[in-house]
Amino acid sequence: MKNVLFNIGLAIVWCSLTASFSEWNFIAGLAVGAVVIEGYTLSLAETHYFGNGVRLVRFTGYYLRLLVQSNLQVTQVVFNPSRLAPRIVRYPVKGMSAVERTTLANAVTLTPGTLTIDESPDGEWLYIHTMFGRDSGEVRREIDDLRSHLRKGVFA
């Protein structure tokens, strides 16, 4: 986050130095600032500035694919209700921060066919309703996969 704010600050400095505050000049300042920050983070052996954006784009692609698959699954159930197997699954979230738990719960809820119902009072479990829960182990593995992609793509 601090690098993003630093980049915006560099873009403002760029606009001041070029004496032009147009949208395109600001975007050019953001590009120049991103290159400067990338060089700076490389010299300090920190996480790459561009790497954060790439990871976020990968997660977005993964999540969009997941949304399409889930929508197709729900559509199939509309035409063939015998595939419906509702179940409530208790999913462990111990060791995740409150922001990570909330983001995971929202990602699960936004996916068609699943809904985060509640979080345990101690914050160690999420209760998730799924329309396709024939095997609770498979549901947990799918949520594990989402959790892994969230950690790598958003919280890395």
Q: What does this entry look like structurally?
A:
With 156 residues, this protein is mainly alpha-helical. The chain has 2 domains: 43 residues; 105 residues, no CATH class. Helix content is 65%, strand content 12%. The chain is built from 5 helices and 3 strands. A 3-stranded antiparallel sheet has the order 1-3-2, covered by helices on one side. A hairpin with a 5-residue loop joins strand 2 and strand 3. Helix 4 crosses helix 5. The longest helix has 31 residues. It is elongated and about 65 Å long. The chain starts with a helix and ends with a helix.
The Cα radius of gyration reads 21 Å
How many alpha or pi helices? 5
Number of domains: 2
Distance between the termini: 12 Å
**Main sheet strand line-up:** 1-3-2
* Overall pLDDT metric: 87
Which residues sit in consecutive blocks of at least 5 with pLDDT less than 50? Answer: none
* Approximate strand percentage: 5-15%
**Helix share, percent:** 55-70%
**Number of extended strands:** 3
Helices and strands, in N-to-C order? HHHEHEEH
**Structural class of the secondary structure composition?**
mainly alpha
Largest sheet: 3 strands, antiparallel
Molecular shape: elongated
